[in-house]
């Protein structure tokens, strides 16, 4: 009868205190059922193994190896390692036999007193190496950090950047990974506006089918981007076709079709997105010497005034009746004619934003029907009209005299910055020149630079249009709910009210 805790011809585990029938294999022992392996508390097995008296031993029988495979499939890698050590030690004892007075070697003795000829150290080292962090892909956030480090310290070598990276991110990288991060392939990270949490999600970049072509195409795209050229999908496809013809390594390969799928993959690999060009800053001549000198003169003139006395006036076109041209739907529907009813809105602001001036609106009708029985002075606007619905020299003259009267009543002298639009120049001449008014001095901004240097073009007018659109969308929703034709109910009076509220 075997001792308690001992399995006949199987495994001797003195300290586990598990009933032997848990390890019995169905068919090998009669009158037994399928062993309930799931009933063995896995955590208790590991705890008891740490406190075990000695290593488990294996038998050499067929039943022993068969049962061993069953046990290995349910136990932990730690338990498996101990059994492998025990198998090796048992094999050594069987061949040479233990000397009298000596016991079989244990796991602790094998791992502690190992020699170069003993294979057990390799097993121990493999177990310890399994705790080392696995190699992982580098994120775009880490690549950008490496590129910025190199840009800030051009004299640093790549091995120095490796040491800095390990100290900063506590992650081991190789010099090759640093070299790849500094490649022109990731040049887009230098100007990437994504937030850090977005950059930390992107890791492995898909490998392109034609790396040489895509590298040359991306380099050309970046060159054109710096020149502020407009690049479309069709232009990229055509340029890819031209580059393909020039690369000798693809001379014997059939040219791809440059499909939309390839283009989407190329844009994703190089973080190329579609952006709308707003304003006129792309055509500004801010680097021309004459414009720079004139702008310096304007800045020197502004130093003579307080911030609240430095004003800027500019106008913009407003399509006050234009509805959204696209719709969210489950099927395509026919659209109507786009209504492009336009008015001109002129704004006046001061440098510190401490004052509000009534906007000037220029429309086509002298007396719109919607203004009937309406006191225009209470609308908070200055309404003028002409056939072109644009600022003319006469309206500018009237505007300047209106502003001069306001400043004279307040006892202030102000500097008004304007662009050299022909209507502005004519209006200033009708007032006697830039210094022809008693309380308003006019100063011209450099030509073709107002989109870059004019205060109202730095987001103020754009913010107004966003707020106006919000009011317009709310009105559209109300008319939808009331089942009314919004294009027949909206009037210029609504547009003037939304303008003052925006």
Describe the structure.
This protein is an alpha/beta fold and 502 residues long. Helix content is 43%, strand content 8%. It has helices at 42-50, 62-72, 77-96, 107-112, 120-129, 140-152, 158-169, 175-181, 196-199, 211-226, 233-246, 260-269, 289-302, 393-410, 422-430, 450-453, 460-482, 486-489, 492-501; strands at 11-12, 57-58, 310-319, 342-350, 360-363, 382-385, 414-418, 440-444. The strands form 2 sheets. The chain has a 6-stranded mixed beta sheet, with helices on one face. Strands 1-2 form a two-stranded antiparallel sheet. Strand 7 (414-418), helix 15 and strand 8 (440-444) form a beta-alpha-beta unit. The longest helix has 23 residues, at 460-482. Residues 1-73 and 98-132 have low confidence and may be disordered.
Compact overview of the structure:
The protein has 502 residues and is α/β, with parallel strands linked by helices.
Strand content: 5-15%
Q: Strand pairing plus helix content: what structural class?
A: alpha/beta
- Main β sheet profile: 6 strands, mixed
Coarse shape? extended
Q: What is the string of SSEs from the N terminus onward?
A: EHEHHHHHHHHHHHHEEEEHEHEHHHH
Mean pLDDT over all positions: 75
Range of helix content? 40-55%
Distance between the termini: 96 Å
Tally the helices: what do you get?
A: 19
Round the Cα radius of gyration to an integer and report it: 41 Å
């Amino acid at each position: 009868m075997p001792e308690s805790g001992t399995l006949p011809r199987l495994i001797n585990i003195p300290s586990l205190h598990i009933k032997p029938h848990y390890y019995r294999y169905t068919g090998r022992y009669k009158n037994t059922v399928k062993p309930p392996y799931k009933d063995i508390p896995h955590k208790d097995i590991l705890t008891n193994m740490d406190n075990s008296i000695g290593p488990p031993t294996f038998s050499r029988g067929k039943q022993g190896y068969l049962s061993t495979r069953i046990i290995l499939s349910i136990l932990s890698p730690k338990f498996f390692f101990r059994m492998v050590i025990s198998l090796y030690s048992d094999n050594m004892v069987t061949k040479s036999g233990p000397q009298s007075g000596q016991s079989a070697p244990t796991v602790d003795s094998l791992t502690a007193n190992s020699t170069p000829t003993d294979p057990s150290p390799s097993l121990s080292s493999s177990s310890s190496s399994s705790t080392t962090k696995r190699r992982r892909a580098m994120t775009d956030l880490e690549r950008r950090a490496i590129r910025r480090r190199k840009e800030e310290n051009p004299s640093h070598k790549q091995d120095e950047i490796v040491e800095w990276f390990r100290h900063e991110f506590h992650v081991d990288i190789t010099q090759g990974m640093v070299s790849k991060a500094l490649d022109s392939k990731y040049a887009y990270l230098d100007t990437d506006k994504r937030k850090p949490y977005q950059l930390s999600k992107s890791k492995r970049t898909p490998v392109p089918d034609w790396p040489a072509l895509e590298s040359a195409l991306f380099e050309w795209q970046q060159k054109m981007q710096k020149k502020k050229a407009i690049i479309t999908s069709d232009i990229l496809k055509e340029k890819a076709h031209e580059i393909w013809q020039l690369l000798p390594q693809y001379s014997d390969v059939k040219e791809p079709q440059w499909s939309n799928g390839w283009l989407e993959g190329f844009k994703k690999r190089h973080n190329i997105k579609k952006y709308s060009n707003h304003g006129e800053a792309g055509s500004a001549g801010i680097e021309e010497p004459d414009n720079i000198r004139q702008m310096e003169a304007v800045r020197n003139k502004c130093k003579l005034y307080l911030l609240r006395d430095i004003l800027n006036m500019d106008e913009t076109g407003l399509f006050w009746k234009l509805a959204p041209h696209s719709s969210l739907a489950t099927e395509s529907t026919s659209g109507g004619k786009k209504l492009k009813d336009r008015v001109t809105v002129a704004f006046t602001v001061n440098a510190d934003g401490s004052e509000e001036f009534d906007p000037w609106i220029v429309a086509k009708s002298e007396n719109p029907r919607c203004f009937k029985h309406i006191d225009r002075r209470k609308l908070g606007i200055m309404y003028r009209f002409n056939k072109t619905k644009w600022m003319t020299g006469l309206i500018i003259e009237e505007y300047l005299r209106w502003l001069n009267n306001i400043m004279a009543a307040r006892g202030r002298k102000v500097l008004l910055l304007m662009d050299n639009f022909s209507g502005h120049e004519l209006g200033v001449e009708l007032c006697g020149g830039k210094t022809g008014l008693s309380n308003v001095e006019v100063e011209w901004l450099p030509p073709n630079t107002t989109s870059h240097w004019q205060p109202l073009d730095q987001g103020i007018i754009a913010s107004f249009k966003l707020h106006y659109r919000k009011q317009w969308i709310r009105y559209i929703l109300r008319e939808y709910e009331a089942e009314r034709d919004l294009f027949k109910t909206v009037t210029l009076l609504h547009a003037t009210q939304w303008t003052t509220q925006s």
